[in-house]
Amino acid sequence: MSHQRIRKRLYFKWSEFGNGKKFLEIVLDKEPLYVYLGFKYPAYVTLFGYFPVAETHTLAYEEYALKRQTALPDNRIQLYVCDQCGDIYCTSITAELIDRGDEVAWADIAKQNEPGHLSELIGVDDIVFEKEQYLAELSRIKNMHAR
Asked: Comparing 6-10, 22-26, 121-125, which segment has the lowest mean pLDDT?
């Protein structure tokens, strides 16, 4: 159900969730991803910098950076997860990760609450990144674990 391709620049910035804990928020150009997705406030957190287990951050980094096969079927990555457990069964926001050579895309962004089943497509355009900038930003946050 891909729509138009909207090219963005990827950034991560430290943000504070409602419980006071910090996480690395995904920012597209200057807009937080949750705003682009139509949420009024961040209802979920990213896997970057929030959970105390460094392996969670590292595995997410490796998936986003195209260094390992995604844990979810259909090459999907978790953009946002439950702040209590990070488990997909509590509902995650996911996207298909597509390597297009000189571009990386997040397509068919959806709510998902089990590994092989999308519960609801969010209905936004695919997000396309220039691959060099995308990978450089991921490299910048590679070792920024929970604060």
From this structure: 6-10
Phi and psi at 140, nearest 5°, equal -60, -35
DSSP β-bridge partners for residue 96: 76, 107
pTM: 0.91
- Dihedral, 28, 124, 34, 140 alpha carbons, nearest 10: -30
Separation CA 11–CA 26 (nearest Å): 6
pLDDT in tens, 87-127: 888 889 999 999 999 999 999 999 999 888 899 999 999 99
- For the purposes of burial, counting CB atoms within 10 Å of the CB of 39, is it exposed (0-12), middle (13-18) or buried (19 or more)? middle
Backbone dihedral region for residue 135 (phi beyond 0: left; psi -120 to 50: alpha; all else: beta) = alpha
Using an 8 Å Cβ cutoff, are 42 and 32 in contact? Answer: yes
